[in-house]
């Protein structure tokens, strides 16, 4: 099984590293049943994160025909006040990341790359699962790939997610079949562990929990079972 974690300019470092370490450890615990790669839409390159400009290297291109699991992170940058509209597209002349970039601008810039088309190809492939951490679901939503689906994101982005036609759910992890989404930044740990349980079994996931001295938080939400009454 191959997992590819997507890097794009301005990505959030922990959105990538948390699921990467969990999935990598799951691969070790399963005797190599899972491999993990860092990739970009453009292919092998150094990609600058939005956390102090720390770079990671993508070692391959995102390949929706080969990846069984594609993980999309969110971005790190300025949040701004509610309703605040960025008065610039930071470094629009060069297209490069800079520290005062707004998160919606960073996420929106992915729409001008090959990433949306590659993600659509992954979502159209029945064998593949697409997962997101934090604002990664907004990347898919802004590309028009999540209309009518159930998903979550960072709590500050739920209204924006809802406005794109997504059934936004306030939960730490949301399982919508071939789409699994995580909420805030640290939910990348919970997302990774849930994916290990789902794909490789609970014993593998439990072994990684013990290794990391971390207990998964929250109940993964699925659109199944009776609806709860008001409490």
From TrEMBL:
Record-annotated DJ-1/PfpI domain positions: 118-197
InterPro entries: Class_I_gatase-like, DJ-1/PfpI, INH-QAR
Top-level taxon of the source organism: Bacteria
Name the record gives this protein: DJ-1/PfpI family protein
Upper classification of the organism: Bacteria, Bacillati, Actinomycetota, Actinomycetes, Kitasatosporales
